[in-house]
Write a structure and sequence with these properties.
Elements lengths: L1 E3 L5 E3 L6 E2 L19 H4 L6 H30 L3 H56 L1
Antiparallel strand pairs: 1-2, 2-3
Helix pairs in contact: 2-3
Amino acid sequence: MTKTTSDKPKYTCSDCEQELDENAIICPNCGANVEEIEEEEDIAVPYHFRALLTYGSVISFVGWLEVIIGLILIINYIVSKDSTLQFVLLPIGVYLTLFGFLAIAIGQVFACFVTIEKNTRETNNILITKLDKLIAKLT
């Protein structure tokens, strides 16, 4: 179901382009189910928490850099024959690798939080739309 452009909101069936009543569930012309299709304004909801998602991505990126550098240091520890370097490379490599994985996990928590918030908002909009349609049918 799509809105047509005019002063009073009108809807058209996406299958047969028949003009529909605002509270229509099924198209009277072709029988298509129009209740389940979201309206355009529900899809175009502004996306919040972009900065938080960016911070999470940056933290994850830094975490991956730490892991890569840590693994390079651990490999150098294994390959190195210099005993003075061995005592430095292994602890720093392990430290960077572990804290890199921790940073990646923190970045993923940020992304998870933003996704949960977005899904909750979209679900809320769908439920409000369904409730409005039900109230309109009852009145």
